[in-house]
Every structure is written in C-alpha cells, then in structure tokens.
Structure of 7-cyano-7-deazaguanine synthase:
Amino acid sequence: MQSQDTALVLFSGGQDSTTCLAWALQRYARVETIGFDYGQRHAIELEVRPALLAKMRALNPGWDARLGEDHMIDLGLISKISDTALTSNVAIAMQENGLPNTFVPGRNLLFMTVAATVAYRRGLNVLVGGMCETDFSGYPDCRDDTMKALQVVLNLGMATRLKVETPLMWIDKAQTWQLAEDCGGSALVDLIRFDTHTCYLGERGAAHAWGHGCGTCPACALRARGYEQYVAGKAA
C-alpha cells in the first residue's frame, strides 16, 4: 500500500470504474469516489452506485476502512451543449469524422477537471480513471497522450502535484476481468457481473453470464466478449 498517497476514483457504477476502485483500494490509504450526472441516457448507472459502494465495503474490511466519502456532481450542462447517443434517444451510429456518436465531446476532460478541483479541496493527490486505449471506440479523450497532457495542464493551472492513474489503459476487457479477480477474487468478479451497469441503452432486464444489459450495444458487446475470453483463458 502507498500510504503517503490518497486517491479520488472516477466511479460511474460500471465495470471499468468498479475495477479501478478495487485497484485503488489495494494501494492507497484513503480513497474517495466521484460520480457525474450529465443527463446520460443510461442514468441507471447512477442508481446502482450506492448499493455497489456498500457491497464493495462488505467484501473487504480493509476496503471498508479506507473507502471514504462519495461525491455526486451535477454536470447536466453536458447534455445541454452536446448532441450524442449517450445524451439523447437516438440510434447509435458512426459519424463522418470516424467516431461513433456515443462519443461525448469534452466529457472526460471536464470529468477530470472537476475531479481535480474536488481533490484539491479534499487534500487527495491521485486521480484514478478507467480510460483505456486498448478496448475502446476511438474516443480521443481516452488516449494515454490525452491523460498525460491533462495531468500537466491540471498541475500547472492549480500549482499542484496531482498524479493521474489509468490502470486499464493498456489492457483489454478480458484482462480487466482478470484484474478484478486479482484485486478481489471471484466475489468481486460476481459483484461486477451482476451489480454494475455498462449498457449504453440503460437496460437491466434478465442477467447474461457477463451481467445485465441489452446485449447488442457496443458497450454490452465489448463486455460480453471480454468475459467470454476471460472464462476461456481460465479453462485453458
């Protein structure tokens, strides 16, 4: 454990952020969480967060001791200034610029800026996000270069020494499932399967082997394929 460090985890209630939270709880003496209500179409993720945090505490007494305050921030302005498949009821499709319309311009940049502001106030010195350049849809605000540049800008702008950690940056979804197991065993894997939410359409319904969701949107397809590969790798 890095006892000199304290962390703020961007925690949406999905698979990636839950894995990142477990990763942080294994490493830092004090960990807080932050979530954002930005008018997302899949707002069900906000509904699962409180119970998910409570269950994370119950999994490990050490995690319970280190897990601190949760911060929920209203960023509804994002839905007012953007027109995407995650902020309005439109079909998911590719755009002329080569990006899917699930890309919300500026979202992660704003998330990290707000998180850094909260971290400044709370005396936390590490920001943890689930951005990933391996299994992603080409979102430019998920790239390693973007996060490294943002770390520089945040520290210059606030005269701080914040560190941005992205533990999923170079691993695929199957490895993300494995990381969850490494951090919290099969109990955490099962918690992620059935208590987190990833589906872009906000559907829960009956549970699949990999969890709840429509099963067809890009987020569900990626999660399902990763889980299948994870299970296959364990059986090999």
